[in-house]
Amino acid sequence: MLRVFGMIYNDTFQESVNDSQVLTPKDREETGLLTAEIARLTAIVERQERELGSVKDEISWLCARVEAAEQRMLAGPGTKKKWWWR
Questions:
Q1: Can you tell me the distance from the alpha carbon of 26 to that of 24, in angstroms, rounded to the nearest whole number?
Q2: Which of 7, 23, 41, 62 could be cross-linked to 27 through a Cys-Cys bond (beta carbons 3.0 to 4.6 Å apart)?
Q3: Which of the residues in the chain have pLDDT under 70?
Q4: CA-wise closest residue to 45 among 34, 53, 57
Q5: pLDDT for residue 67
Q6: Neighbours of 6 (CB within 10 A)
């Protein structure tokens, strides 16, 4: 969503620059600060998306383990492997 905002902001800003063609030094400074903030927030969102992906992978792995354990329990006691020392 932040990336969409950044694209909308950049498009709107370009249109306003094209309309006025005049930026004061203060406007340039503010624009630079806003662009840097958008880049910083975009990097944070991308990092969080990567972290969320790894969490989803871990949850999927855990669900598979639980499902396998349930299948073993449903199979009953006679299907367990006997250990060599028994």
A1: 5
A2: 23
A3: 1-21, 78-86
A4: 53
A5: 92
A6: 18
